[in-house]
Specification:
two-stranded antiparallel ribbon; 6 strands; 4 helices; alpha+beta
């Protein structure tokens, strides 16, 4: 095909470049027809681009819905280890006291759920880090909980042990003051039931005659003070 010729946009036959009417099909050739013919592929191209963009937007929206509020991911990332730590402390304390086993079982169930779920929480909040670090975090919380619970319990256990003889002496003095000089009941065991404030505790002293008395124990300057409350 020479430079002086072109193809008819309607029938495809070769015609002169300056022709205004096709000699083969008889269609009129003008600028409007040529523009309309050339604009169709552009429109089709734009439609194809729009169709290609829709799935990407839909996928992006799906990801945003699945991720939810990004702040919640970091909240659970910090909150779950703290709950795990507190439950470890409560479990140890209740086991030592020998009371409230409902809270022991509940704490174990909650901690088991946290241990199972925290790996996925860690992966969503910190995707660039290895998920094995999630178990390392819970392991550190476990050790801290055991140490804190054990140290606190050791102090209370020491106060309970030292208070036994002090309660016996106070009960004996009360009996003498009441005119009773024989068969003094002795304190067999002291159980701390509440911590009022730093170094001050409420406790129950069990006596050899089957009775018990409420007492207050105070620990100050490495000395122990006991008061009978009833």
């Amino acid at each position: 095909m020479s430079e002086d010729s072109k193809k008819c946009p309607f029938c495809g036959e070769e015609i002169k470049a300056v022709a205004i009417k096709c000699k083969h099909c008889g269609e009129m050739l003008n600028e409007e027809n040529e523009k309309s013919e050339t604009s169709v592929p552009e429109q089709t191209s734009q439609e194809e681009q729009a169709a290609a963009v829709v799935p990407v937007e839909a996928e992006t929206n799906k990801d945003s819905v699945d991720d939810g509020n990004p702040k919640l991911k970091y909240l659970w990332l910090a909150l779950e280890p703290l709950i795990f730590l507190y439950n470890c402390y409560v479990i140890i304390n209740n086991i030592r006291v020998g009371d409230g086993y409902f809270w022991v079982v509940l704490g174990l169930i909650i901690n088991a759920g946290i241990a199972y779920n925290y790996k996925s929480v860690f992966a969503k909040a910190l995707p660039n880090l290895q998920t094995k670090l999630a178990y390392a975090v819970l392991g550190v919380m476990l050790v801290i909980g055991i140490i804190c619970g054990a140290s606190s319990n050791n102090v209370e256990a020491m106060l309970e042990k030292e208070a036994v003889s002090l309660v016996t002496d106070l009960v004996r003095k009360r009996c003498v003051a009441a005119g009773r000089y024989t068969d003094f009941p002795e304190c067999e065991e002291v159980k701390i039931v509440d911590k009022i404030r730093d170094n001050t505790y409420k406790a129950i002293a069990e006596l050899s005659n089957g009775g018990d008395v409420n007492i207050t124990i105070k620990h100050k300057d490495e000395q122990i003070f006991v008061r009978l409350d009833n």
